[in-house]
Amino acid sequence: MRFPSLTFLVAQALAVLRRFPWTLAAGVTAAITSIGASTVGADDAWLRITFVAMLGLPVTTALALLGETRGWSGGRRALVQLGGIAGLVAFYYVWPGIDVHHEAIRYLQLSTALHLSVAFLPLLGAPESIAFWQYNRRLFLGFLRAAVFSVVLFAGIAVALGALDRLFGVRVVSEVYFRIALIVAFVVNTWIFLAAVPRDLHALEGDAEYPRGLKVFAQYILTPLAFTYLIILLAYLIKIVLGGEWPNGWIGWLVGSVSVTGLLGFLLVHPLRSNPEEGWIRTYARWLFIGLMPAALMLLAAFWKRIVPYGLTEPRTLGLVLGIWLLGIALLFTVRHAASIRIIPISLAIVLLLTGYGPLSVTRLSISSQGRRLASMLETRNDSGPNAREASAALRFLIDRRADDEIAARIERGLPPIDWKSVRYGGARDSLAQRILDLRSVAYVPEYGPWDGRGWIQMEAKNPVPIAGFDWAIPVTVGDTVTRAAGADSVQLLSSVASNLVQFRAGRDVLQFDLRSLTMPGSGPVIPADWRPGDQLRLKETTGARRAVLALNQFQATRYRDSVVVSYWTGWVLLGR
Fold first, then answer.
1. CA quadruple 170, 171, 177, 183: dihedral sign
2. CA 550: distance to chain centroid?
3. The pTM is what?
4. Residue 486 has what DSSP assignment?
5. Please, which residues bridge with residue 511 across strands?
C-alpha cells in the first residue's frame, strides 16, 4: 500500500480550496466567530454570526456543486454564491438567536433542510440513475472519514499540548484546547470532507462500485437494530390494544430510532435490491415499510394525546408533521417498491422548510392554537381553577413569541404598551401576563404554582448591598441559629414568634423583621418574579441605640388564599449603632 506524499496532499488541499473557496471561507468565519463568542464578556452577535456561518457550509457547497453540474461560467457561479451569502446576511438580521427556544427549533429545521439540499440539489432534474446513490454514498463515507480524521487529529494535538504542559512546564490554558477543537471542527473537518466530493457527478452513472464494508454495516448492524426496534414497537402496540391505553410520549424516541436506522439501512443497500443473490434486501424493505406504518400511527396518537387538551407547540407540531411524513413515505414504498429514493430527502427538506417559516410554520400554527386555547379558557370565569391555570399557560406561550395581535384578538381588549426587549422569562413576563389578564378580570396563575390558586414566589437581588454606616455584615439563612461574634456582641437568629416574623438577638437587644411587607406590598395580587431591585428586599429595624437592616438575597413564599407564608430565605443582617 502506497501512502500519498506531502506534495500530493498539499496539491489536493489547494484543489479543494480552488473548488470550494466560499465553503472554506464560511468554515473559517465560523471558527473565528465561535472563538470570539467563547471569550468572557463577548457580545451575543459573535454567537449569532457563528450559527449563520454554519448555515453557509451547506448553502455554498450545494450552490458550488449545482454550478458544476449545470456547467455555469465562473462569473455566474460567483454571482449565485453572492446571492446565497446575501440571503444569509438577511437571515442574520431577522433571526433573534439560538437562545430563543422556538427560534432554535426553526433554525434546526432550516439547517437540516439545507444539509439535505446538498444530497439532491446538484442532481435535481437529472434522470433516475445510480449516479444519485453513488454521489450520496461518497458524501456519507466522506463525512465518516472526515469525522474520524478530525477526532484523531484533535486528540493528537491535545496529547502533545498536555505533554508540553506536564513534562516541560509550558502552561497551556484550557481555552486553547477548546479553540483548537473549534478550528478542527469548522476548518479541518470541512476541508477533509470536501476532498471526498466527486467532481463529475454525471460520470457516476456508470459506476457499479459497492464497498463490501458498507454492505456488512447495513446487513449486520443497521438491519438487526431496525428489526429489534420494530419488534419492540409491535409488542407495545399489542399492549396498547389489549390494555386500551394511549401510547406513552417516550415512544417518539423509539420511532425516531427505528426510522433513522431503518431508512439509512434501506438507502445503503438500495443498489443491490435487483441482485438475485441479495433477496434479503427485498424482504427487509418490504417489512420495514410495513412496520413503519403502525409505528408512525402510534407516534401520531402519542402527540395527539397532548395536543387535544393543551394545544399545539412547536415540538408537538413538528412531531405531528414528521409523523405524517413518515406515514406517507411508508405507504409510498409499500405500494410502489420501485419508487425513487430521491423522494425521501427531497420531501423531508420541503416539509421542514414549509413548516419552518411562513404561514404554515410550526410557530405560526402553534400561536393560532394557543390563541384559541386562551380564548376558550377565558369563556369560563374561574380565578383559581384549571381554566385560569390553562389560560395563564397559553398567555405565557404567546408572550414568549411576542404575539400581541393574537393576544389582543383572543382577549378582545386592547393591550397596554409593551417593551418587548425587557419582557423575557421570569418577573417581567409574569407582571405583563397579570396586567393582560386583569383586563378580563382573571387571576394569573404562575408557571410553577399549584393548581388551587396558590403561587410560589422566588426573588433574588443581584445588586451589591450598600453597607455604609454599619459596623457588621453577617450572612444569615432561615433555620441557621449558630451564634456569631460581632465584636463584643454575639448575634443569633431566634425562632420565629409568628408567621413571617424573623427575630435576631444582637447582644442584649432583640431585633424583629416582618416579612409581610415584602410579600404583600399594597393590596394587589402577589406576582412571582425571578428578581427584584435590592432596595425592595431590605427591612429596617431600630431598637434602642442599635439599628439594623435585613437585606435578603432571595426568599421563597407560598400563597395560601389570603395570606403569604415565607418558607425559605437567605441574606445579610447589617448591624450598626
1. negative
2. 40
3. 0.77
4. E
5. 504
**What are the phi and psi torsion angles at 355 (to 5°)?**
-95, 0
Name which of 53-62, 321-330, 372-381, 495-504 the model is least confident about. Answer: 495-504
pLDDT at 156: 95
CB 119 within 8 A of CB 139: yes
- Beta pairing partners, 509: 506
| Average pLDDT for 434-439 | 85
Task: Using DSSP, state whether 511 is helix, strand or coil.
Answer: strand
Residues 475-510: tens digit of each pLDDT: 888 777 788 888 878 888 876 555 578 888 888 888
- The secondary structure element, H or E, covering residue 407 is helix 404-411
Partners of 493 in the beta sheet? 504
CA-based R_g, the chain, Å: 31
Cα–Cα distance, 458 to 451 (Å, whole number): 18
Any residues with CB less than 8 A from the CB of 560 and at least 6 apart, and which? 454
**One-character DSSP codes across 120-148:** HGGGTTSPS-THHHHHHHHHHHHHHHHHH
Going by pLDDT thresholds of 50, 70 and 90, the confidence category of residue 529 is very low
d(CA 88, CA 92): 6
Give residue for cell 410520549: 249
Within the chain, what is the greatest distance between any pair of CA atoms?
101
Picking from 526, 514, 536, the residue whose alpha carbon sits closest to that of residue 562 is: 526
- Residue 150, pLDDT > 70, answer yes
Whole-angstrom Cα distance, residue 69 to residue 333?
A: 29
Which long-range contacts does 470-474 make (Cβ < 8 Å, 24+ apart)? 470/549, 470/574, 470/575, 470/576, 471/575, 471/576, 471/577, 472/574, 472/575, 472/576, 473/572, 473/573, 473/574, 474/572, 474/573, 474/574, 474/575
pLDDT tens by residue, 557-570: 665 545 566 777 78
503 neighbors 493 (Cβ within 8 angstroms):
yes
> How far is Cα 274 from Cα 285, in angstroms, rounded to an integer?
12
CB 576 within 8 A of CB 469: yes
Residue 288: closest CA among 333, 257, 319, 325 = 333
Q: Are 572 and 473 contacting, i.e. CB atoms less than 8 angstroms apart? A: yes
Chain center to CA of 504: 47
**Residue appearing with cell numbers 457547497:** 61
CA distances from 149 to 152, 188, 211, 412 (A): 5, 9, 20, 60
